[in-house]
Structure formats: structure tokens, C-alpha cells
Backbone:
């Protein structure tokens, strides 16, 4: 059972306390952002000479809306596909990550199990919400999201507020059994 916590006793959230953005935590020579893009895009193309570490283009099926989104690397186009933390960093901070070491926070921020390439619109709408305040707009994608969200919360021994616990439970009740 995941312990309850209202999240109000945590100090103010600061993204910088989660370490280097898109670090190469698995030491494969590629930053985490490009690892996630390579994993989540269909038919990704790579910049030559980068050992397939710089994604240039591909197609994303947004895991939250189901929409197909073309990704093209560039200052005006890259923001259309963003990397979402399934369990948002600010949410995790309020639910226990503020007590972790800097190394634990950086590992969490770059853990591929907690990262999904997603569309800009759905990622911005989700923000730092848990399932009580945000669920994927496509109902058929809510089970997968909540299952991944709960798995990360449990794996990292985060606490959970009663609203998110109730909402997660309600969604999981509707999920097909494996």
C-alpha cells in the first residue's frame, strides 16, 4: 500500500534540484531526450555521424490523445513533440522527492520508465497534475497512463494524496484484466 500524504509539507519546488536535464544516465552516449524520441517515434531518422544519438524526424502517436504528430528537429518544430514525465517532477517533489539525494532526483528525472514522448498540447495540459486533476483526453488511453503512473509511484516509494489515490482506483477499475 502506498502511504498517503497531502503534499503540503514539502518545500517550494525547484526544477534545478532534479539535476542535469536529459543527462546520459544509461551511459550509452545519447542524452535521455533523444533516447526517448528514438524509442517512441515511428521510423525515426538520425543525424549522420551521431551514432544514432540525434533524432532528426519521425512520427509520434501521442500516448494521451492518440493523435499522429510529425516530429522534425528544429527550433520552431521540436516543441510540437515534448518529453513528458508520467509522474511529473513537481508532483513527485510534493510527494516525497524533496527528501531524496540529488543523485536520486536526477535518476528519477531521466528514468525512461517515467518518460513518454507526447504532444505539446497534452503535455502542457497535464502539467504537474496527478490523475485527480488530469487524465488523457482519449478514454481508451487512460488505463495505460494510470497503470504507468501507479507503477512509478510505487517503484519510487512516493506517497500519494487521497484525491489521486481515488482517481487512480476509479480508472483502474475500468481496465481490462491482462
Residues:
Amino acid at each position: 500500500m502506498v502511504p498517503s500524504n497531502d503534499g503540503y509539507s514539502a518545500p517550494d519546488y525547484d526544477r534545478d534540484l532534479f539535476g542535469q536535464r536529459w543527462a546520459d544516465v544509461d551511459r550509452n552516449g545519447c542524452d535521455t531526450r533523444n533516447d526517448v524520441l528514438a524509442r517512441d517515434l515511428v521510423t525515426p531518422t538520425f543525424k549522420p555521424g551521431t551514432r544514432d544519438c540525434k533524432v532528426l524526424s519521425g512520427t509520434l502517436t501521442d500516448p494521451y490523445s492518440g493523435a499522429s504528430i510529425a516530429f522534425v528537429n528544429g527550433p520552431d518544430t521540436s516543441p510540437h513533440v515534448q518529453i513528458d514525465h508520467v509522474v511529473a517532477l513537481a508532483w513527485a517533489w510534493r510527494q516525497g522527492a524533496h527528501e531524496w539525494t540529488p543523485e536520486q532526483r536526477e535518476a528519477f528525472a531521466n528514468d525512461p520508465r517515467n518518460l513518454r514522448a507526447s504532444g505539446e498540447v497534452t503535455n502542457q495540459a497535464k502539467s504537474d497534475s496527478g490523475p485527480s486533476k488530469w487524465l488523457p483526453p482519449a478514454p481508451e488511453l487512460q488505463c495505460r497512463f494510470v497503470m504507468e503512473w501507479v507503477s512509478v509511484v510505487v517503484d519510487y516509494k512516493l506517497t500519494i494524496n487521497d484525491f489521486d489515490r481515488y482517481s487512480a482506483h476509479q480508472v483502474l477499475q475500468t481496465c481490462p484484466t491482462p
Remarks:
- The longest helix spans residues 142-155.
- The chain is about 30% helix and 15% strand.
- The helical segments are 32-40, 89-94, 102-109, 120-126, 142-155, 162-173.
